[in-house]
Amino acid sequence: MPYPEFVGGEPVRSRLVVSNEDRFYAQTSEVNVVTGDGRNGEIVNDADTMINGAVYASRGETRQIIFIATNSTREPLRGVVLTNVTTAGTAPLGLACLLPDGSSSTGVYDESSRTWAVRWDATTETGTAMWDPGETITCTSELTLDGGSDPHRDVTHVSAVTVKGEVTTGDNSYNAFSGNVQVIKYDGRGPDPEIGEDGAWVTPTKPLADGRQDANTMNQAATYEPPSSTGANAVRWVVTNTGKTWLTDVSITDVTETGPMIDPNSVVCALQNGTLGTVVDGSITWSAATGALLAPGASFFCQGTLVMGEADVHVDHVEVTATIVVPAVDREGSPSDEPQRSPGGSPLPAVNP
Ligand SMILES: [Ca+2]
Ligand SMILES: [Ca+2]
């Protein structure tokens, strides 16, 4: 009968205690698979979670993705199948496996389920091979990401069947992401590049369509005609997160190579309480406030003023740096569109090379 609720007063205890015992044994009967990136069949980055995910170079990078499946049970297995499903971002390419009997097997990719599958045909019911305890299957594929790529997650699953017909499985994941930042410095007398409104960002394109406004060469230098030629002229920067991950620690370094420098006290950036660093040798540094975040696709503007003398020339360049923030994940471990935060609430910087 089902457990009934007792409603009433305190029970009156007897002196008799009843008891019973039982035993329970457990043993590991699961196969094991590890997936990560590496070289020559050796895994370097296991990258099981997004927090220790592999960070790809913003210029673009291809890494070898490796799966190593081991029969970690005590018995030979049949019906060996490996799958690799991409749950976020682009999928790896060209999956092939080296099997313990020395043969190799090429993976088959199903576009709709974003799944690679490899079967060890010789281990089917009527096959000639068994996957013996301790033997490994090594598979490789290639994943390419660049600074504009969506964060990536894939899960490798291995499945096999014991002689008694019990299915044994193992799985492991691989996480990777990248990020990128862009700065355009231009003549602030003209209109700003279009960046749109919340939720409908237009990424400013580099270089600007108007070469004279971008002023990237002496031939296209911004020319200040009288009467403003020796007055204060606006110079502007637009900084954009051109990646799919959040950025923090955004810092701008503007270095004057020739002529008068932009007035450091005039530099203002429209991103949460940024600060101007000490000016050294014509180098102006501006840093965003600690913890300030720049969303994927978002831009902000900075402005300074340049005062030139008569028949003067000004040349400078600007560099922007930023730290990629680890993408937050949902309950299944796939990346959400939010930045991961540390327990203290600050953005969690990506650390894995
Ligand atoms: Ca892994
Ligand atoms: Ca420019």
Describe the structure using short key phrases:
43% strand, Immunoglobulin-like, 2 domains, mainly beta, 6-stranded antiparallel sheet, binds calcium ion, 353 residues
What does this structure look like?
This protein is elongated. The chain starts with 31 loop residues before the first strand and ends in a 14-residue tail after the last strand. A hairpin with a 6-residue loop joins strand 17 (275-276) and strand 18 (283-287). It has two domains: 32-177, Immunoglobulin-like (Sandwich), CATH 2.60.40.1290; 181-324, Immunoglobulin-like (Sandwich). It has one helix and 23 strands. The protein is mainly β and 353 residues long. The strands form five sheets. Strands 2-1-4-10-6-7 form a six-stranded antiparallel β-sheet, with no helix packed on it. One calcium ion binds at residues 34-36, 46-48, 172-174.
How are the elements arranged and paired?
Elements: E1 32-39, E2 42-45, E3 54-55, E4 61-70, E5 77-88, E6 93-98, E7 104-106, E8 108-110, E9 115-119, E10 136-145, E11 152-162, E12 167-177, E13 181-187, H1 211-214, E14 232-241, E15 247-258, E16 268-269, E17 275-276, E18 283-287, E19 293-294, E20 299-307, E21 315-324, E22 327-329, E23 335-339
Parallel strand pairs: 3-12
Antiparallel strand pairs: 1-2, 1-4, 4-10, 5-9, 5-11, 6-7, 6-10, 8-9, 11-12, 13-14, 14-20, 15-18, 15-19, 15-21, 16-20, 17-18, 22-23
